[in-house]
Design brief:
mainly alpha
């Protein structure tokens, strides 16, 4: 019976380590997808001269579903024209999807602030806002990319080693 418990503890700890490693990979992918969406939004606003609602809709159609559904939902709410500001719409829709995005609180807060600054500025200021946010995303992506391999190996190893440690203590 002890050995069965030991195997369960070792398996659980290894699973936690692998789950954390997977989270790090998903976080990097989410930042990359968000960066792609902002680049597409920038193209729609600056070069296609599309209105914001249309630019958001087009962006939503060209990115992965989790991210795309957010942009399409914001676009739909803007089209309704019920007197709610873009900032309020952005925050409400972000609240609905933030759990499924694998982003940290600081990254979500940066995205929330970006949405608040997007709607009411002229074209030149929107360009500066888009470029500034893209720079932030690139810095975050580079930081995550540099440490990804080490974090994945470390979390998987710590999961296994903590499992072994707990088994030794319990036996």
């Amino acid at each position: 019976m002890k050995w069965f418990g030991a195997i369960l503890v070792l398996t659980a700890c290894t699973g936690f380590g692998l789950a954390f490693a997977d989270y790090q990979k998903r976080r990097l992918k989410a930042v990359q997808m968000l960066k792609k969406a902002i680049v597409l939004l920038r193209v729609q606003i600056l070069y296609a001269n599309a209105p914001l609602a249309e630019a958001l809709w087009e962006t939503g159609n060209r990115v992965e579903e989790k991210t795309g559904s957010f942009f399409r939902a914001v676009s739909d709410r803007l089209e309704e024209g019920d007197g709610v500001s873009l900032k309020e719409i952005w925050e409400e829709e972000l609240g609905k999807v933030q759990e499924s995005w694998s982003l940290e609180k600081t990254e979500l807060e940066d995205f929330r602030q970006f949405g608040g600054e997007l709607g009411y500025l002229d074209l030149a200021m929107q360009e500066k806002t888009l470029n500034l946010y893209l720079e932030r995303l690139e810095m975050t992506e580079n930081l995550l990319q540099r440490g990804l391999d080490a974090k994945v190996k470390l979390s998987a190893s710590l999961g296994v080693l903590s499992g072994i440690f707990l088994v030794i203590i319990l036996i």
